[in-house]
Amino acid sequence: MSTIERIVCGVVAALAVAQPVAAHHSFTATYDETQKVRIEGEIAQFLFRNPHSMIHVTAPGPDGNVHRWAIEWAGVSALAGNGVTHESLRIGDHVIVTGNPGRNPEEYRMRLLSIDRPVDGWTWKGSFE
Q1: How far apart are CA 70 and CA 54, in angstroms?
Q2: Residues near 73 by Cβ (< 8 Å), separated by ≥ 6?
Q3: I need a labelling partner for 126 at 20 to 30 A (CA). Which of 6, 22, 100, 110 fits?
Q4: Does residue 107 contact residue 68 with C-beta atoms inside 8 Å?
């Protein structure tokens, strides 16, 4: 294999690896990782999926009104590795969620850091890895 062929192969391989990484969003761009918020409310929806699971919780916002919070969680593989399944959370479960708030406060978004269900002591605190 000539030097030019090796360079071309190297560039093609680098681009193949870089494309999926570029497609994934930055948590820092979406969430304020220097801040933490805590909400307490009921689960309205639980989407156990990739690339990130989502929990929708109805809970009061800073204004005192009840809002539907969109809470981004880890993907299926990461959660399954921590014992979380599609049956771990149910609509109506009362939960306490701590996370990084979205950069736009009017969107009521959060990146989940921990979740607790006081009625039975179930808890999760982990990472997105």
Answers
A1: 7
A2: 52, 53, 54, 55, 79, 112, 128
A3: 22
A4: no
Assign a CATH topology to domain 26-125.
OB fold (Dihydrolipoamide Acetyltransferase, E2P) (2.40.50)
pLDDT digits (tens, 9 = 90+) for 34-84: 999 999 999 999 999 999 999 999 999 888 899 999 999 999 999 999 999
Q: To which residue do tokens 């009362």 refer? A: 94
Query: Which amino acid type is present at position 12?
Result: V
- Angstrom CA distances, 116 to 6, 13, 26, 113, 127, stand at 53, 43, 26, 11, 15
Tell me how far apart the alpha carbons of residues 95 and 117 are, in angstroms, rounded to a whole number: 5
pTM: 0.77
CA 4 – CA 10 distance, rounded (Å) = 10
Alpha helices in 31-128 (DSSP H): 76-80
Give the integer Cα–Cα distance in Å for 30 and 28: 5
Of 112, 109, 116, 32, which is closest to residue 67 (Cα–Cα)?
Answer: 109
